[in-house]
């Protein structure tokens, strides 16, 4: 295929933030009687909008949006700066920018978080287009965020490659019609493919990307 655009999820894809999110949720939910361990985080929280999780597990919460904002503010406070990007991510993005390949971030994180993460990994200047799920008609796993990104970049979804790590993100990109690459930061090859990935990679240094993106191996 001809790759005309690159679309990137953030959390767990461009940087490994799951341990930070898990710890914040653990501290936030313990007083509310919900114990968060790795298995619960991956099963119930990973890749979802906070308000969707709260609606299911805290249906009596009087201010779910306020609780979500409190949680994300705590995440930003705990996010180290600088923070390492996923191996190979910066190289891929800088090379794509040099070639003039359109790129966008497509995330279920709130905009303040997206900007904080990009700043932390030193790529704040790399993306003119940031699509935020809660600002779309529907968030991931609905295809709306990826369709919005393709529309903003003026490319057909079938000409775009999307990088994702969560079932909701993979489903969103696949439903939009993108070519989907699953990043094995938390899930196995089988789990990522079952959720919609056409290809999976260890990280952005994985040689499997070279043929897809028609680049010279290092």
From TrEMBL:
The keyword Nucleus does not apply. It comes from the Bacteria. Keywords: Carbohydrate metabolism, Isomerase, Magnesium, Metal-binding. Its cofactor is Mg(2+). The keyword Isomerase applies. InterPro entries: Beta-PGM-like, HAD-like_sf, HAD-SF_hydro_IA, HAD_sf, PGP-like_dom2. Its EC number is 5.4.2.6. One of its GO terms (molecular function) is metal ion binding. SUPFAM superfamilies: HAD-like (SSF56784). It holds the Pfam family Hydrolase. Belongs to the HAD-like hydrolase superfamily. CbbY/CbbZ/Gph/YieH family. NCBIfam families: HAD-SF-IA-v3 (TIGR01509). This is Haloacid dehalogenase superfamily, subfamily IA, variant 3 with third motif having DD or ED. It comes from Wenxinia marina DSM 24838.
């Amino acid at each position: 295929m001809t790759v005309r655009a690159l679309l990137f999820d953030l959390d767990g894809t461009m940087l490994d933030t799951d341990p930070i999110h898990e710890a914040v949720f653990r501290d936030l939910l313990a007083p509310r009687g919900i114990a968060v361990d790795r298995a619960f985080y991956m099963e119930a929280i990973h890749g979802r909008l906070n308000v969707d999780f709260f609606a299911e597990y805290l249906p009596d919460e009087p201010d779910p949006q306020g609780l979500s904002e409190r949680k994300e503010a705590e995440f930003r406070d705990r996010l180290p700066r600088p923070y390492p990007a996923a191996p190979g991510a910066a190289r891929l993005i800088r090379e794509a920018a040099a070639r003039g390949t359109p790129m966008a971030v497509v995330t279920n994180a709130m905009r303040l978080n997206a900007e904080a993460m990009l700043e932390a990994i030193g790529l704040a200047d790399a993306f003119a287009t940031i699509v935020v799920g809660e600002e779309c008609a529907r968030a991931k796993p609905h295809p709306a965020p990826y369709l919005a990104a393709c529309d903003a970049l003026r490319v057909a979804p079938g000409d775009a490659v999307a990088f994702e790590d969560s079932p909701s993100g993979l489903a969103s990109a696949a439903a939009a019609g993108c070519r989907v690459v699953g990043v094995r930061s938390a899930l196995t090859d089988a789990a990522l493919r079952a959720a919609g990935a056409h290809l999976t990679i260890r990280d952005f240094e994985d040689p499997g990307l070279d043929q897809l993106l028609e680049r010279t191996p290092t």
